[in-house]
């Protein structure tokens, strides 16, 4: 059987890379007695597939992986058993059965909702945050530089991210801290990283940000 | 505690931020304020290297298993992190509590290789702790050090308050207990150090000793400055490994480390007596753990870590007396978990096809052999008891079992070495290659690749070659050129070590107290991470040598006189100086000394566990 699990990635563990996570899940599965299906061949490893990588340094309440098992067990038991050996900041919060017709994680989940908290550097100037964001959203072209691989070389290309930005709002302004809520595309068909969005806001609007200070958490994905 | 918000900002900008976060599986989360002695274990290299060191895992669990003590960890931050730390005023901190290292009671460095010494100074500086021992009062942690390089502690004697010579499982707790007692009754650094030097075997406090020098720079005398402390420091050794503390847990790093697997220590010591090998002399005698004990430990470690590979760790794992049984039983117990067993290095003479068959039951690894020298004569000089037939047999087994990637390790600059011996390295390599391609077609499995690595010999204290002068850098380069020209086969990769690195290592490893100044000057010149070819800077070292006024030839290249007082003579590492001298002379005649499992050669260890058992 196949199970899809939704998990968190919080605290300092936001600094684990995609490969670190795969190794963590592999080790954790070994520590349980779950009937994990292993690949055949030279280096057997659990049949596990993770969704699109979350950028390093971003927390999340909603990451996904799929796992193949050799026996049928209840997804709830799977969750309880695996959670016993997972670190406290990476826990499964939902698990359900899927079949061979279920679309893969990367095709079925391509929208992410982020909370972004960042320091502003607008000291004396009066800036109307909401107006600035409205004007930002009215832009047809929001170009940012993205690093891309072209063959063996890495190149920077200008990309218009406006089509990938679905919603953006100012949630809270407190002293020099602003909190945004953003709904963006994440996946092969279009992708915005939190830092890219903040850079664009900083560049295109009067809202000037201390980009090193940002904290981001993915609160929903679908 | 450091400012976590600033830390978070910094972590977003550095390479591999997970090096600095801690929180690994099996890490401890004890309350620093509720512990009677706060110990921080410092590894003077980057996280991935330090976490691959078995001693760290042992001491970490040993100390944290005690209610009164807490042990946290710190590593040398990589260049990018150091720059950000200095810029943002973040002091060196522990991974667990993110507490400044300065606020711990004891800071313990492990000395695994000499080229990490500049990192020790840099870490002290990053921690805002005075680098010189004499400049530190009760406001700072006691700085201690142990590990293999502590067998010649003198080059670090200006910086370290207290050394522990030998195995740490018992003595570490004795040091902590003494510290606790002193802390309860008003801590005085001087008093604590004195009590430790007086009452704990294996403890060496350099400030209680004075060394004098002759005009020719050699040592004229050594004396104790306070009464009641030992003139000779006897190394600590654990008598019974089965009764010794062995952790059932290991920290599991999130990021990939050098040895990303379980290290199961199967024995200590080694019986071969290879004359270049310091570990083979200082860790004598051999002491094995029982199969029963090892199986129990392995099961617990797999359960607590989830690792899929167990590495059987020791100085020469094929020597374990019941290796077949051990591997067989390990795999029987763990195969359903897809756990594999690996051997770190294989001795040519003791590998059997059965062992190869067993290890590959789950997964295949590449095989490494270390003939060390290219000719039989030179292998006899260094007392590496293997011959060409052993190599042929071992490689033959390996090919038959489908291994196609082989690594061979050699050294150059060994005593009595000639060009003929050197060219033997090429001959052996080509022989291995030919053996693969001369096999019947259906037995040529896989893509053949041979890597021949040659390192520059560094004479070490407590070995029979401790009197021998190292080859000069120029001599090493000539030898490299000679060899390089002869390797012209794309199937054979020829690697060699940087002679300049080995030269610095040679100066430090047999150095005396005056080398402290060199290390300080080197750090001032910007030397750090000297063991990394990417950051080793010979020019900086050259400047440091000039600034410190030491004569490098005196330390590295000169043949030492047998009458000379050597800087480490005051340490009793087990085998006597007479034994080492006897071995030195035998080596010049290419005479072998038998393995001490076969016959006791009388090396002089008191109460040797081997004596009376095997002969």
Question: What would you say this structure looks like, in words?
Answer:
The complex is a heterodimer of chains A (222) and B (615). By secondary structure, chain A is an alpha+beta fold. Chain A has two domains: 2-108, Pseudouridine synthase I, catalytic domain, N-terminal subdomain (Alpha-Beta Plaits, 2-Layer Sandwich); 111-221, Alpha-Beta Plaits, CATH 3.30.70. Chain A has five helices and ten strands; from the N terminus they run E-H-E-E-H-E-H-E-H-E-E-E-E-H-E. In chain A, the strands form two sheets. In chain A, strands 1, 2, 3, 4, 5, 8, 9 and 10 form an eight-stranded mixed β-sheet that branches. In chain A, a hairpin with a 2-residue loop joins strand 6 (143-150) and strand 7 (153-160). The mean pLDDT of chain A is 92. Chain B has 615 residues and is of the alpha/beta class. Chain B has two domains: 4-234, Cobalamin-binding domain (Rossmann fold, 3-Layer(aba) Sandwich); 262-497 and 575-588, pyruvate-formate lyase- activating enzyme, CATH 3.80.30.20. Chain B has helices spanning 4-11, 47-50, 54-64, 79-87, 117-126, 168-184, 189-199, 278-282, 291-305, 323-334, 353-359, 376-381, 388-400, 419-437, 473-486, 499-509, 515-524, 538-548, 552-556, 577-588, and strands at residues 37-43, 69-75, 106-110, 142-146, 162-164, 203-204, 209-213, 219-224, 233-234, 262-265, 267-268, 287-288, 309-313, 340-342, 367-372, 405-412, 449-456, 492-496, 571-572. In chain B, the strands form six sheets. Chain B has a six-stranded mixed β-sheet with strand order 2-1-3-4-5-6, with helices on one face. In chain B, strands 15-16-17-18 form a four-stranded parallel β-sheet, with helices on one face. Chain B has a three-stranded parallel β-sheet with strand order 10-13-14, covered by helices on one side. In chain B, helix 5 (117-126) packs across helix 17, helix 10 (323-334) packs parallel to helix 11 and helix 17 crosses helix 18 (538-548). Chain B starts with a helix and ends in a 27-residue tail after the last helix. In chain B, 48% of the residues are buried. Chain A binds chain B through residues 11-13, 15-17, 19-20, 23-24, 26-31, 38, 42-44, 56-57, 85, 87, 89, 212-213, 215, and chain B through 8-9, 11-13, 17-18, 21-23, 25, 252, 254-256, 260, 302-308, 337-339, 362-364.
């Amino acid at each position: 059987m196949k199970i899809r699990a939704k998990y968190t990635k919080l605290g300092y563990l936001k600094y684990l890379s995609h490969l670190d996570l795969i190794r963590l899940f592999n080790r954790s599965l070994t520590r349980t007695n779950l009937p994990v299906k292993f690949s055949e061949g030279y280096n057997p490893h659990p049949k596990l597939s993770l969704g699109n990588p979350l950028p390093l340094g971003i927390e999340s309440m909603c990451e996904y992986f799929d796992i193949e098992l050799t026996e049928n067990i209840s997804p709830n038991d799977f969750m309880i058993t695996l959670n016993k050996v997972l670190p406290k900041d990476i826990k499964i919060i939902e698990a359900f059965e899927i079949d061979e017709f279920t679309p893969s994680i990367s095709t079925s989940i391509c929208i992410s909702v982020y909370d972004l908290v960042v320091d502003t550097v607008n000291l004396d100037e009066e800036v109307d945050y909401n107006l600035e964001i409205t004007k930002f959203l009215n832009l047809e072209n929001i170009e940012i530089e993205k690093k891309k691989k072209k063959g063996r070389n890495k190149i920077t290309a200008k990309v218009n991210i406006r089509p990938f930005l679905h919603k953006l709002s100012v949630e809270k302004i407190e002293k020099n801290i602003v909190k945004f809520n953003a709904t963006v595309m994440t996946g092969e068909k279009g992708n915005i990283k939190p830092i890219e969005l903040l850079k664009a806001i900083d560049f295109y609007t009067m809202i000037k940000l201390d980009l090193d200070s940002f904290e981001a958490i993915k609160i929903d994905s679908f | 505690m450091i400012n976590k918000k600033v830390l978070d900002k910094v972590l977003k900008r550095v390479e591999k931020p997970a090096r600095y976060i801690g929180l690994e599986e099996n890490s401890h989360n004890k309350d620093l304020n509720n512990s009677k002695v706060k110990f921080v274990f410092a590894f003077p290299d980057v996280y991935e290297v330090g976490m691959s060191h078995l001693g760290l895992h042992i001491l970490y669990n040993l100390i944290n298993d005690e209610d009164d003590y807490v042990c946290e960890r710190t590593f040398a931050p990589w260049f990018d992190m150091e720059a950000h730390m200095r810029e943002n005023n973040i002091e060196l901190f522990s991974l667990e509590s993110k507490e400044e290292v300065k606020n711990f009671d004891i800071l313990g460095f492990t000395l695994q290789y000499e080229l990490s010494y500049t990192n020790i100074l840099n870490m002290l500086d990053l921690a805002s702790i005075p680098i010189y021992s004499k400049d530190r009062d009760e406001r700072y942690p006691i700085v201690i050090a142990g590990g293999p390089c502590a067998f010649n502690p003198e080059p670090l004697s200006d910086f370290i308050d207290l050394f522990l010579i030998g195995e740490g499982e018992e003595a570490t707790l004795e040091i902590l207990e003494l510290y606790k007692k002193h802390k309860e009754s008003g801590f005085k650094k001087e008093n604590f150090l004195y009590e430790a030097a007086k009452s704990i075997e294996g403890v060496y406090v350099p400030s209680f000793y004075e060394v004098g020098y002759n005009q020719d720079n050699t040592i004229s005398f050594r004396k104790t400055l306070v009464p009641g402390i030992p003139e000779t420091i006897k190394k600590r050794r654990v008598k019974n490994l089965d009764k010794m503390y062995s952790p059932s847990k290991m920290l599991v790093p999130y990021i990939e480390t050098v040895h990303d697997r379980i290290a199961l220590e199967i024995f200590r010591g080694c019986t071969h007596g290879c004359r270049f090998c310091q570990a083979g002399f200082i860790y004598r005698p051999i002491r094995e753990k029982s199969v029963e004990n090892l199986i129990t430990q392995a099961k617990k470690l797999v359960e607590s870590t989830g690792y899929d590979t167990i590495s059987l760790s020791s100085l020469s794992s094929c020597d374990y007396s019941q290796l077949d049984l051990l591997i067989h039983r390990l795999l029987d117990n763990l195969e359903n978990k897809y756990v594999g067993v690996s051997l770190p290095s294989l001795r040519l003479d003791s590998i059997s096809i059965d062992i190869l068959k067993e290890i590959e039951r789950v997964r295949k690894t590449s095989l490494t052999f270390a003939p060390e020298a290219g000719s039989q004569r030179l292998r006899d000089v260094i007392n590496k008891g293997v011959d060409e037939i052993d190599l042929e047999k071992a490689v033959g087994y390996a090919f038959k079992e489908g291994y196609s990637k082989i690594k061979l390790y050699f050294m150059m600059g060994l005593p009595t070495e000639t060009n003929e011996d050197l060219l033997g390295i090429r001959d052996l390599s080509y022989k291995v290659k030919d053996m693969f391609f001369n096999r019947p077609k259906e037995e040529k499995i896989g893509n053949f690749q041979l890597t021949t690595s040659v390192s520059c010999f560094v004479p070490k204290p407590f070995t029979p070659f401790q009197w021998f002068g190292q080859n000069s850098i120029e001599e090493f380069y000539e030898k490299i050129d000679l060899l390089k020209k002869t390797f012209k086969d794309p199937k054979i990769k020829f690697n060699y070590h940087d002679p300049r690195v080995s030269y610095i290592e040679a100066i430090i490893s047999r150095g005396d107290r005056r080398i402290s100044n060199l290390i300080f000057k080197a750090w001032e010149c910007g030397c750090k991470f000297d063991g990394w070819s990417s950051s080793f800077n010979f020019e900086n070292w050259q400047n440091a040598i000039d600034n410190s006024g030491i004569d490098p030839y005196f330390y590295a290249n000169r043949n030492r006189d047998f009458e000379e007082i050597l800087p480490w003579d005051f340490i009793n590492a087990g085998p006597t100086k007479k034994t080492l001298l006897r071995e030195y002379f035998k080596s010049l005649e290419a005479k072998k000394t038998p393995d001490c499992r076969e016959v006791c050669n009388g090396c002089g260890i008191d109460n040797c566990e081997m004596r009376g058992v095997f002969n």
